[in-house]
Q: What sequence folds into this?
């Protein structure tokens, strides 16, 4: 029963991710300009037929990945340690929140943690908690860590089929369907994209995904 609920939740989220998220991603995108990357659009399917199962999900990961990577690249290296707490905004409560770098490292770490059970690969040995390896500190290294985590996601999604989507996998002490983990990774990435947008604007930087709409 528990697994069935997870699958039902996953199917509901699939509708939201495919239909709604491309239009609302934190209010920072232009759905008319943001098109799925060509590498994830099938050219072998006949007109009017549904795309392969994995391609539908790959397209969504490609979409959010491109926005998050562009956002991370837009923040200057000397601002990677920025947190809203440093602005001391009256009436706010940002005490103890992650830095911009911490946001990226946490997002990437959860990517690895969520996608690894799907691919069957062991979790990176340098990951000991949700904040990521302490040895990764520079902007260059953090960006590589982020991109590698999305590469793990694409590898995982490529293994998904209609037949194995509901297969249960061990994850953090419970069992989740492969498809459920895919939705979790996508929604988690979107959550942090929204937070990172705010960080950039607090530093006086227009997020790349907004630039086209403000010209």
A:
């Amino acid at each position: 029963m528990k697994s069935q609920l997870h699958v039902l939740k996953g199917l509901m989220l699939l509708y939201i991710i495919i239909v709604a998220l491309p239009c609302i991603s934190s209010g920072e995108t232009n759905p008319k300009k943001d098109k799925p990357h060509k590498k994830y659009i099938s050219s072998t399917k006949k007109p009017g037929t549904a795309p392969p199962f994995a391609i539908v999900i790959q397209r969504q990961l490609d979409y959010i990945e491109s926005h998050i990577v562009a956002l991370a690249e837009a923040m200057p290296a000397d601002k990677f340690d920025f947190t809203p707490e440093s602005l001391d905004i009256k009436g706010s409560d940002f005490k103890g929140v992650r830095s911009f770098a911490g946001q990226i490292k946490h997002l990437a770490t959860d990517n690895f943690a969520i996608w690894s059970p799907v691919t069957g690969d062991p979790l990176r040995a340098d990951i000991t908690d949700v904040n990521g390896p302490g040895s990764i500190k520079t902007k260059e290294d953090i960006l590589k860590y982020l991109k590698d985590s999305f590469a793990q996601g694409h590898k995982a999604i490529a293994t998904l089929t209609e037949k194995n989507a509901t297969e249960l996998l061990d994850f953090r002490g419970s069992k989740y369907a492969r498809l459920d983990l895919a939705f979790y990774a996508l929604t988690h990435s979107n959550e942090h994209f929204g937070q990172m947008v705010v960080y950039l604007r607090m530093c006086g930087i227009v997020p790349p995904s907004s630039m086209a709409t403000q010209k």
